[in-house]
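Before a colleague's protein record goes any further, I have to sign it off. What it holds is a sequence and that sequence's fold in token form. My question to you is simply how this chain folds and whether the tokens agree. Thanks in advance; the entry in question is below:
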Amino acid sequence: SAFACGRAPSDVPALGDAGAPIDPVLLAFLSRAKSAHHIADQHEEAGELEKAIEPLESLVKGPLPAGAAADAPEVREVTADTLARLADLKRQLGRFEAAEKDLSRGLDLARETTYFRGHLIEVRGLVEERMSRAEKDKGNTQAAEDAKKRALDAFEKSMSIQAEVIEKATRLEGGP
């Protein structure tokens, strides 16, 4: 037992699903991410979107795990999800180009057909939808229509990805 050798429970490596030790650097990254999102939540609830962006930007700019941990699905997924949230905050601030850069970076990380990829594309739809309204307000009818079409395309693509995620999970669980 861990106690027999004088180690406290916190000194014992955390075990993953397969019973293998989880990398302490990965745990540190995940804990840092959780804290960054909690800080962002507080600022967002207070209506301080610029302040909500700061801890999330800090997370995605690093430090990030290196080596094998850098390509761990958890690192890619948490980073992609954080980039989606950043894009959504920037969308609300009308910073469409910056939002698109975050979405592109997130999509580079979330290459497989997963919830995270679908969510990034959903947020892309939200960015385009907001851009459409901004263009309409400026009297740019064609630009507004183009952005609206891109929004609808993104939402449809997101729905398709999420349907595939659901279908794949259902098959794996032995469903119909």
User: Anything to note?
Assistant: Residues 14 and 20 are 8 Å apart (CA to CA). The helical segments are 24-45, 49-61, 73-92, 96-109, 115-137, 141-172.
